[in-house]
Amino acid sequence: MEVGACNFDTFSRAELLNLCKQKGLNEGEGATKLDLQVALGALEEEQRRWATSEENEMDDREEEGEDPAQNFELHHSTPVDNQEEPDDLDEAGSSVSSRGLSQADLGDRREERKLKVELDKLKLEKEKAEAKTALA
Hints:
This protein has 136 residues and is mainly α. The chain has one domain (2-135). 58% of the residues lie in helices and 6% in strands. It has a two-stranded antiparallel ribbon. A two-stranded antiparallel ribbon has the order 3-4. Helix 1 crosses helix 2 (33-63) and helix 2 (33-63) runs antiparallel to helix 4 (103-135).
């Protein structure tokens, strides 16, 4: 069963079971090799989909002229009254929202989100490489 960059057919049942346990999957001892391959493949696909959807969401907002970091709280927090007080100015004269975040802070958050997505991808690649190395 070829899934993404990892060919789970080369793994033994015990190795697949161990990988499932390492990744927090609750596949039981009675699971067949195929069940384990499917579970790992589904996990890998879900991680890939999540990373892709995060990137696409940020790209879509950029194409629409929005700053994803600026709208982060609107999309990922509890609803708040949109009737906020007008922005104050800090000592440098830049705009500061009523939540106390400057445009630089919002840009930093955006960069942090991009870096987190990239880090998640790298962690997944590392896990795959470690699994392949353990089999060799």
